[in-house]
Design a protein that fits this description.
Distance between the termini: 48 Å
CATH architecture: 3-Layer(aba) Sandwich
Shape: globular
Helix content: 25-40%
Largest sheet: 7 strands, mixed
CATH class: Alpha Beta
Number of strands: 7
Number of domains: 1
Structural class: alpha/beta
CATH superfamily: Flavodoxin domain
Number of helices: 6
């Protein structure tokens, strides 16, 4: 089994990476490989609402010049997905949001590519705003019918300078437990395949309230 983790921080070796690495080490202890993809330093265009991914149904975003489609296929092949972001103004990093908006939109309208995969989110913050950013990341997992792994507290770790998060003893424990719980949930899903029949996927019903 394999997890693909996305680091939304522009700092490749910062505290977001620290959080992801703690989770990855716990996963490795359970025999699960983690690939870490660096997103935050890339130039990612936001979704333009062109709806071509809905029209084409080819698991591709039509916007050129970045790696969103490549990363989406990594997500499709993976058993688990880990999203990590620093906190910018009580929200996730802009580049990370641009990537997630496009990737999850394509996935949702192309046979729900991420449905029933195991997912988790982590954020790194200096002081405040961690929970709103954590909620933002979880919105993508919830909308995609993913199975969300949890820990013994909200998945937020604290630190300012790169590496400081490792001194947050409670945060480190949260990430370690998250990795163990994620591994356990992934194994449950794997063992259930072919034995437990998953619920039938329903066609999405869209409506608004303007009449």
């Amino acid at each position: 089994m394999k997890v693909v983790a996305f680091n939304g921080s522009p700092n490749k070796q910062g505290n977001t990476f620290c959080a992801i690495k703690i989770v990855a080490d716990a996963l490795a202890g359970e025999g699960i490989e983690t690939e870490i993809v660096q997103v935050g330093h890339k130039n990612i265009t936001g979704c333009t609402a062109c709806a071509q991914c809905i029209k084409n149904r080819n698991e591709q975003c039509v916007l050129p010049g970045d790696e969103v489609n490549e990363w989406l296929q990594k997500m499709k092949r993976a058993d688990g997905i880990l999203l990590g972001s620093p906190v910018h103004y009580a929200a996730i990093a802009g580049t990370m949001k641009s990537f997630l908006d496009r990737a999850f939109y394509v996935a949702g309208f192309n046979n729900s590519l991420l449905r029933h995969k195991v997912g988790a989110s982590v954020v790194a913050v200096r002081r405040s705003g961690g929970l709103p950013a954590f909620d933002q990341l979880n919105n993508y997992l919830c909308y995609s019918e993913m199975l969300i792994a949890t820990s013994n507290y909200w998945n937020v770790i604290h630190g300012m300078l790169p590496g400081e998060a490792s001194a947050d003893e409670e945060g480190v424990q949260i990430m370690r437990i998250l990795g163990k719980n994620m591994a356990w949930l992934m194994k449950l899903v794997a063992h259930g395949k072919g034995t437990v029949v998953p619920p039938e996927r329903e066609k999405k019903r869209l409506m608004n309230f303007i009449r």
